[in-house]
Amino acid sequence: MSLFIKHYRPGSIFKKQILWRLNSSVAENHESEEEFRVLDILKKRDKQQKRVARRIDVPADRAEKMSTDQNWGNVWPGPRSFHPSTVPLPIRQGYVPKGQVPPGKKANAELMKIPNFLHLTPPVVKTQCEAIKKFCTEWPKLLNSDEAIEKHYPVEVITSDYCHASPTIRNPLARVVTLRVKLSTLNLDKHAKDKFLRLVGDHYDEKTDLITLTADRCPMRRQNLDYVNYLLTATYHEAWTVEDWEKEKMEADMEYYDWNNNQSKKNLVNWYHHCSNKDKALSEDEYKSFDISVIDHGEEYKLAVSSLFNDGESEKTINNYDTAVRKLLGLPERKAIE
Amino acid sequence: MLLYWLPNFIPQQHYAELSPENTESQKKRDKPLTYEMANPPHYIAHRKTWNSWNTSNLKDGIRRSETALEDEFIRRFMNGTWHGLVCSEIIIKRQFNHIRVAAIIRRAVSPTKMYFLLGYSEELMANWLQCPVTLELQTVDSFKDVVFKYI
Amino acid sequence: MYSTIPIQRQWARLAHVCRALSSLEGHKLPVGGKSIDGISPPLRISRSPTDILQALAATVGVDPTAPHYKYHDDPFLIPQSNYRKRAYALSAEAGRKAATWIRDEQAHLFTTREWDPPMKMKTPYFNADPHIDAFTPRPIYNDESKVTEEDLLYTINNALIEDAIKVYQLLGASEGVNDELKMSLLQLLCFYNEKEPIGAEWLEERWFAAATRERQAATWKLGGLADKIFASMDPKTPEAYCTLIQGMAKYYQAERAHAFAQEAIEKGVPLSTGVYNSLLSCVGFLKEGTALRIDALKGLLAEMNEQGISPNADTLTACLRSISAWGGGQILQTFALQVLAEFKALNIQPSLSAYYYILCLFCKERGQRIDILTSILTDLENRECLEPSDAMDTHFFITAIGVCSDHLQDINLAERVHALLMKGDNYKLVGDAYKESIYYRHLVTVTCRHAPFETTAQLLDMLIPNIYVPEPSVMEEIIKTLEVAGAGDRLAEVWSQLVVFGLAKRIKIVEQLLNALCQCYSYQEDEIKEKIRNAAADMLKFGQLIQEQNENRRTPTQQLSATALANIIDLCADVNDKDDPSWEVVGEALGRLRSEQAVGVPDKPEILASVAKKAANIGKPGIAATALTYLAECGFEEATKACVETLGVMLNRPVEEVQTLLQEPRSALEASLHPSALVIAEAFHLAKTGGPMDSSSSESDSDSSDSD
């Protein structure tokens, strides 16, 4: 507190002195008039004399001069905050209690806040489209459906451009590149397909048959685009190469249950031979190439077992298996349990 | 003295006497409010809208802090440069790298001076923020024109 | 906010998926708007980065209610007169200048960002990405600056002459700078004659720059830095010679330029077409007399031929420029046409400035009427677009419209000129504010004089006030046209326009307007009549207001003449209601007439007489009395008759009775008559005898009776 006083006392005294001096000089001017001098401490009179309100003539709004058949696009050519003198509409905005009138368009900050679309009226949009039509090229005729597009352009590259309000046009998210291609459009044989799927892993979606490769590791879009292209190229060619060790693939390494290679077929064949009293020892290859169609309901059984292993255990697959086995063994059909 | 701090012990009618300014000002209704002041912040998006429009405020918007700071700079700059003339809040709209600053201005200085200020503010802010800046002003006769109600 | 656009479906074929993708960027596509095989995408229609914006901008037309876009669209800030247009635009530019000054002075604040707490960290201030050069501070050079050749290059490239000279000297003048830079500096100095031009970013300053006609005198700085640099260059390259000669010729140092050229030729230095062009444009300074000058010009052209230098469009412009500067006359005109034909044979198109010189040569103010403009316009209209190539190109349109207006007085040609100016991007050729205003002055004048009224009205509505504010002389022309067309409502509006444009103090126009209003008042509709009356009343009030203001300033004010006041009275008295405020105006105007605040006397006193009668009829005897007294005082013959008639109306008696009544002595009348009637009787005597009524002291004041 003492510091405060120290600093401010001299100032206030100084002010008083100035005030006094000013007043005395004013008083001198009035000496000719035969009146007592008045000490006008607050100088009220001078202040009042100074303030002469200058009336400024403001011309009428230009909205009033506008003709009714004017082209609105000429009046409001670009995005701009609302201005009451330019918009010839009786607009009001603002929340008021019931029974009162909302504030009018003049001096209404709310109207200025809202981004308006006065520059994009339907006729303006139409003329603008006409104006830039000359830069557009025709859509290729044969690409008239989604299927056609898919057929001719199987690879889809997805990138995003970002429009945002800032002094910089860069957005880190713009670097992300996604490449999509349908597996069925790739030229792969059984082995290559199997290898390809193993290589892409969960980038493959079985439902849509799409392989989706996304890259965001590089700072630039171009680099990421190059990278996804490289990924696709590399996996594709890698899928076609057959390494020596791939011959060592065991039944346990199979990605799916192949009934032909499995014990189930051997059992069925053995059982069939046994039933027809033609027991004989078959080699591994003979088992594999055995034509199942000779066995009644054999085909059905094969499908049922395959689906039980490949699609997993569910009520449907189990029931399916049940029916197939009953048919195969000639058992009566299962009665529905009440 | 103690009683001032313990209003609960004072009968109701006495309490009213103890805080005379409060009731009196409510009676006088001489405090002007603009529409913006009349609606507290929780009415934003219901009765009034934002004063800053930009994409940084949206989800995952970039340059959040910079934008907020720049907007504050613009507000202070405008209020200081157009001293005693600004009757409303400064409304800042950003589109791409274009900043549009809207405000309601009192017609207290000559148009020539206003044009000087216009050119000055636009150029200086443009150089400072490194974006083109456009001022979109609306002029009114006096503060009274923007008053929504009195309390 | 985020528009996620699947950019493109890649057009890679199945067989070469990978390879096609990697080579996409280098893919060269054939040209054409259609796909070749119906599958591959059609070729891109090539366009510049701004083509789409320009196409969109072309859809926006003119809004006659809006001010130019450099002004703020707010009623308070829209300029309404020429003075304000200039003041507002230049104020805004002054503000911008102040801001750039601050930026350059405090450059460190605009290039680095200081973080909180202060002194802790400083990073470069790069807000915009990509970087915008226009927002970076300009360097300031003074004696302490440490400069390199890069600074010199920067200043030269940005045409900062003073800075360039400073940097050049800081670098140690001719010793410290390499020849290449010296050459560029020499070119810069020669082009601008060592004078700093107005910066390209100050559009308004250039637009409103005082229209000083360039003096055709030797302004070249003899012994200036350019000469010194040239002297210091060794060996002197042909480029240096060309630069110096062109600089000298441009600033009319003709003799030295020609001497240098001669020297260069003797030394075997090859000269360029540009040099000869500049020599041709100042060849007239060497010789006196038309014949000698023509010979000199021909000689130069022959010399060009000898040197094997081919002429271009600028050569033609330079020739015509010289010829038009030598005056007029048959000989020069024929010579100019010869030159034009010669160049046409060489397949060189005359530029706009060439045509400007032709117009100057052929369409002299007091000369014979020669319609050369029609053929010029036909040529220009057939061109795809008019590209400016010379600073004088901007003079073409004002000269052409001037020729239409003053020389040929042909509205059709004027309309063709205007259509040409409005075509495409040609409006940039209008020049600057001064030229634009002259252009419209001529256009409006010729339209007012020769076009049908509807066209004129349309043009005026389009132009005034946002594009063009008429000058006093044009305003008179407009009033004349409106008067002839009898457009009463427009005439009534003209008054408010006069006030807004700041022309209301010009008494001559106001009087003309009043006259026009009176002329076409009688056949207007009632509504318009009322407007006219209001305008007239306002004129009177405005005159008083101005007078009150000027009393403080003690400057002489022009006052409305008596005729004008009589016109106001005539207009305002056309009301049949006794309580109409117009009568007050009439009384006011009469008061001013009587107190001799007006110049001269009304040239149609019968107006006042009829007003007096009407006033008496309607029950305003005071006004009738004042009018008649004024008439009598001025000594108009009509006064006596009017007095009798008015009295007759007032007293509701036939004329004969009134005349007998008037013979009675004053004392008898005093008793029997209403004070106003008495005043009229006095006026009657004053008019008849030239003196006051017999046996009276004529004390009664007409003003006092006004209150009745």
Provide an overview of this structure:
The complex is a heterotrimer of chains A (338), B (151) and C (708). Chain A is built from twelve helices and four strands. With 338 residues, chain A is mainly α. Chain A folds into three domains: 73-136, no CATH class; 146-248, Double Stranded RNA Binding Domain (2-Layer Sandwich), CATH 3.30.160.20; 257-329, no CATH class. Chain A has a four-stranded antiparallel β-sheet with strand order 1-2-4-3. Chain A is elongated. Chain A starts with a helix and ends in a 9-residue tail after the last helix. Chain B is α/β, with parallel strands linked by helices. Chain B has a domain at 52-150: Cation efflux protein, cytoplasmic domain (Alpha-Beta Plaits, 2-Layer Sandwich), CATH 3.30.70.1350. Chain B has helices at 2-5, 12-18, 20-28, 35-38, 64-81, 111-129; strands at 32-34, 52-53, 91-95, 98-106, 133-140, 147-150. Chain B is flat. Mean pLDDT of chain B is 83; it is low at 1-25. Among the domains of chain C are: 69-115, no CATH class; 235-349, Alpha Horseshoe (Serine Threonine Protein Phosphatase 5, Tetratricopeptide repeat); 364-469, no CATH class; 480-546 and 558-603; 604-692, no CATH class. Chain C has a two-stranded antiparallel ribbon with strand order 2-3. The model of chain C is unreliable at 1-30 and 695-708 (pLDDT under 50). At the A-C interface, helix 3, helix 5, strand 1 and helix 8 of A face strand 1, helix 1 and helix 2 of C. Strand 1 (156-159) of chain A pairs antiparallel with strand 1 of chain C.
Number of helical regions of chain A: 12
Over all CA atoms, what is the radius of gyration of chain C?
A: 38 Å
Structural class by sheet pairing and helices of chain A: mainly alpha
Termini gap of chain C? 78 Å
User: How many beta-strand elements of chain A?
Assistant: 4
- Number of E strands of chain C: 3
User: The biggest beta sheet of chain A, please?
Assistant: 4 strands, antiparallel
What would CATH call the class of the domain at 235-349 in chain C?
Answer: Mainly Alpha
Strand content of chain A: 5-15%
Percent of residues in beta strands of chain C: under 5%
- Examine the secondary-structure arrangement and name the CATH architecture of the domain at 235-349 in chain C: Alpha Horseshoe
Task: Please give the share of residues in helix of chain C.
Answer: 55-70%
The residue ranges of chain A in which pLDDT falls below 50 over 5 or more consecutive positions are 1-33, 47-53
Q: What is the molecular shape of chain A? A: elongated
Cross-sheet strand order for the largest sheet of chain A: 1-2-4-3
The top level CATH class name of the largest domain in chain A:
Alpha Beta
Number of discrete domains of chain A: 3
Q: List the strand order in the largest sheet of chain C.
A: 2-3
The CATH topology name of the largest domain in chain A reads Double Stranded RNA Binding Domain
What is the CATH homology-level superfamily of the domain at 235-349 in chain C? Tetratricopeptide repeat domain
Write down the overall mean pLDDT of chain A. 81
